[in-house]
Amino acid sequence: MADNTSVAVLGTGIMGAAMARNLCRAGLDVRVWNRTRSKAEPLAAAGARVTGTPGEAVEGADVILTMLYDGGAVADAMNAALASLSSGAVWLQSTTVGTEAITPLAGLARTHGLVFVDAPVLGTKEPAEKGLLTVLAAGPGRARDVLAPVLEAVGTKTVWVGDDGATGAATRLKLVCNSWVLALTNGTAEALALAAGLGVDPARFLDAVGGGSLDCGYLHLKAQAILTEDYTPSFSVTTAAKDARLIVEAGRAAGVRLDVAAAGGERFRRAQALGHGGDDMAASYFASFEA
Fold it and tell me: What secondary structure, in 3-state letters, does 54-78 show?
């Protein structure tokens, strides 16, 4: 039986499009908007209503889901939608925006009568497409019933870390998790680059650590992308560079020096400069070699 919850999805890139499709499959009333409309139009076949403006998307929506590039893009989209927002609607803010952007976004929600839920997600393209994301959420209890069909459609687990989205508790947890993801990605890329430079068969490296305490599934996932030269993005170099910057900034504000994260961010920036910005973040591999 279809749920009558209406959801406006602002941002239909890799993650937003996958989440919107799963919301459609769950029978929800889904409207989508993207700055580049052509990226949203394929979602019409899944049952979503493609809109031309953020205001058109959010009009009458019970839930507004933002999955955009950064805090600035989120603020721009929501400000453009202000005249059409319904007081009492739940804003599920899932963009990774960093700690500095949370307070003004929560303030925007408060000023316009929205229920703000800080809710970044763990997972990349494939988990998003399969509805297997983990949602890290902080927000008031009254939002949870409204969000239940939405969260069930996009993920397998929701980790509630607080009752006030304005504190950024979920965002802080996301930055900690992403610091680990980016470190693993860059570590894999550097190890394989070193293997190439030293003439070591990468299969021997993977076999040497396989099954032991140094092994992990993510190593093999990113190693396969590099070894098969398949850089179809599940999480792009450009987005990884942005997240690395947010992680380093958050650490600096907290008095924590993050040398590995800073170096990793530089690798992503170098790969981006080499033309790999739209590739999967495993393409940080190319940052190990001269242009």
Answer: HHHHHCCCCEEEECCCCHHHHHHHH
